[in-house]
Amino acid sequence: MPVAGKTLGPLTFHRIALATLLSSLWFAPLLRAAQPPDEVLDEVVVIGEQPGPPMWKLSKDGHTMWIMGTLAPVPAKMTWRSKQAEAVIARSGEILGNTSARADVKVGFFGKLSLVPSLLRLRNNPDGATLQQALPPDVYARFSTMYRRYYGKDPDPKETSRPLFAANEIYSRSLEKSGLAEANPVWPVVTKLAKQHKVRIRQRDIEVPIEDPKGLIAEVAKIPRDKEVACLVATLDYIDRELPNIKRRATAWAVGDVPALRALPAAADRTDCLNALLEQPKLAAKVAPLKNDIEADRAGIFSWMLLTYETSFTAMPVEYLLHDEELITRWRAAGYTVEEPR
pLDDT, tens digit, for every residue of 75-129? Predict the structure, then answer.
């Protein structure tokens, strides 16, 4: 979600905007963009109810905003439950939720149905090439090795998936086989508790008009192959380099081990797959204005809630709370007392 009271960095914003916009257009799977073999079966095993980290506390003039640090991916077999968060939600005047983007495809129901074949074709190489033919030999050999690691078999030589789609699949599979789930578990629980305690969640969807969905789909279909290959290579690199720390981070978050979270390096962005999409003019033109719209929509809400309610609640990625010194410094400069969990 966008960060309350903070200007979004370009990579963070693009990840948020593209994920929300493209999911509405039904091709979000394109966005999911080598660890040593002996790590593969070392799954994250955290089972049952887990609290997540303690909350950050922002206060001024007797009013307090409690902030839950969220994370994804997390252990697949855990259920998030924080009694501290439940108590805060129950007595909150309001909850600051998400501001997100949603595509408004202006072609009507039957027009949307007519887009389905084009969307389905996005999965496959437009020239009918197999994945093996589309990739340089060394890249395909590396992909095959990782595929065997996570699927336990060789890739199908007749597979015609585009490299962009193959990157998505191998990344998702690496998380699954590591005992991780990509979904953020906090907000569904917060939404349920807010309804139970009749607490309003302040959130808004910004509609993005899509007047030419066929043109947008055609543009994505024409992403140069070398850009897609770069996306796949970057994804293989990312899995090799980052997956061990992703697993450690997920375990530490689940059990609320803040010192362990602080000791781990900040999570790295995956940029090559996003860049391949953002270089397409029609898509870039739709995404670019969202940054200002989302920031303008949230401007002042954070401070207003602290002035208005004795207790309020929000959640944001724990990465910002742990590693963004500018964010904490800005809060303190505004006169807020910031209490960080240890």
Answer: 999 999 999 999 999 999 999 987 776 666 666 654 556 556 666 778 899 899 9
Q: Are 305 and 201 in contact (CB under 8 A)?
A: no
Q: Is 336 exposed, middle or buried (0-12, 13-18, 19+ CB in 10 A)?
A: buried
Nearest to 321 by CA among 11, 31, 95, 58: 58
What DSSP string runs through 186-239?
Answer: HHHHHHHHHHHTT--EEEEEEEEEES-HHHHHHHHHT--HHHHHHHHHHHHHHH
What is the number of other CB atoms lying within 10 angstroms of the CB of residue 310? 12
Is the link from the previous residue into 54 a cis peptide, with omega within 30 of 0? no
- Lookup: tokens for 237: 């690199």
CA distances (Å), 109 to each of 32, 113, 115, 134, 189, in order? 27, 6, 10, 35, 33
- The tokens for 230 are 């770069």
pLDDT tens digits along 236-272:
999 999 999 999 999 999 999 999 999 999 888 777 7
- Which uninterrupted H or E stretch holds 123? none
Closest CA to 34 of 170, 163, 230: 170
With CA atoms as reference, report the closest residue to 298 among 280, 310, 283, 316. 316
What is the amino acid identity at position 331? Answer: W
Please state, in angstroms and rounded to a whole number, the distance separating the CA atoms of residues 195 and 95: 11
Long-range contacts formed by 122-127: CB under 8 A, 24+ apart: 122/27, 122/30, 122/162, 122/165, 122/217, 122/220, 122/221, 123/29, 123/161, 123/162, 123/165, 124/160, 124/161, 124/162, 125/160, 125/161, 125/162, 126/221, 126/222
Q: At 102, is the secondary structure helix, strand, or coil?
A: strand
Beta strands 63-70; 56-60: pairing state: antiparallel
Q: How far is CA 81 from CA 49, 114, 300, in A?
A: 6, 43, 30
How far, in Å, CA of 29 to CA of 23, rounded? 8
C-alpha separations of 97 from 2, 191, 199 in Å: 9, 9, 12
124, β-bridge pairs: 161
